[in-house]
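This protein record is not my work; I was only asked to verify it. Take the sequence as given and treat only the tokens as open to question. I have pasted the whole thing underneath without changing anything:
***
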Amino acid sequence: MGMKKLCFLGLVLFGSLVTFGQPDPVLPDPPPTPDSLEEEPLVVYEISPEYPGGNEAIFKDIIKNLQYPQFCIDAGFEGKVFIQFIVEKNGKISNPKVLRQPEGDYGKAMAQEAIRAVRLLKDFTPAMQNGRAVRTYMTLPIVFKLN
């Protein structure tokens, strides 16, 4: 066999091995349909969510629902907890979480109580964007202060 034929045969065999040794191409997942996606809550929107009675009412209801942890009172401990939650399209509150709290066991107790009080709030009028109700983030500062 001539040198050219031998080199050609070697390239063909090598090329076949390389081609057959490759994994099958992975096709990307099809794009999700609107029905299969849960909309991400918005941070900026045209019309803000509104609590029945306005901002004054939301803080009155927080104060009414809030139970200052007794061991924090005994220790004279005060602090501020920031709670973020989602106002859903139907106005209900979901996914409350602590963004910031005082450190230590006192802070943990205050944070747990702040989340409990937020969960007891009434339904909001949802935020609006382009004429339709949308999910939105809200953040509330909750202050624990002894009189």
